[in-house]
Amino acid sequence: MTDVCPEDLAALYPKPSPRVIAKARPAIDAHAKRFIEMSPFCVLATSGTDGSVDASPRGGNIGFVHVAGPNQLLMPDRSGNNRIDSFRNVVEGSGFVHLLFFVPGIDETLRVGGRGTLSADPDLLASMVEFGKPPRAVLNVAVREVYFHCGKALMRSKLWSPDKVQRSVMPSIVEIIHEQTSLGEPESQDVVEARYKTQL
């Protein structure tokens, strides 16, 4: 197998059309705002001081990420595993973040890039109560680029197809981690889901 070098890329891929270049916008317009306000799920990507990259899922009620202006997003952080890889990267690393927003039923996705900072301002946290509790922190994104991706990837994957994989084909995440690490006690999927509902 031969790795592709930079010079090979031009031979493998034609230049993007002017429209593809132009659709990268410097701010959130009405279409991007509406998409974000319909989105219950996104993926947050950050980069660390050592060049490593982290991508983690984020979700909430529809519109859980707040559009505070054409160049500002506010994303509340909910309880998780407390590794805080993403937030360490924001605070200690480059500060650059990218968010990829999904809306169930729509094949297109929206990418938003910019620079992130963290806030634990009590008034801001109190304004973002969801699932009966305030967030621990809020990611404030100074938006620099907004870009709609075409729907080909989601169409190929049939992500929104009604044909769902049954959860029972995989052990619970606790059973997986117990097998991998021998830590904790294995728990069934029913027990895990019941606990999740109290921790949202």
From TrEMBL:
InterPro entries: Pyridox_Oxase_FMN-dep, Pyridox_Oxase_N, Split_barrel_FMN-bd. It comes from the Bacteria. It comes from Bradyrhizobium hipponense. Pfam families: PNPOx_N. The lineage of its organism: Bacteria, Pseudomonadati, Pseudomonadota, Alphaproteobacteria, Hyphomicrobiales. Residues 29-150 form the Pyridoxamine 5'-phosphate oxidase N-terminal domain. This is Pyridoxamine 5'-phosphate oxidase family protein.
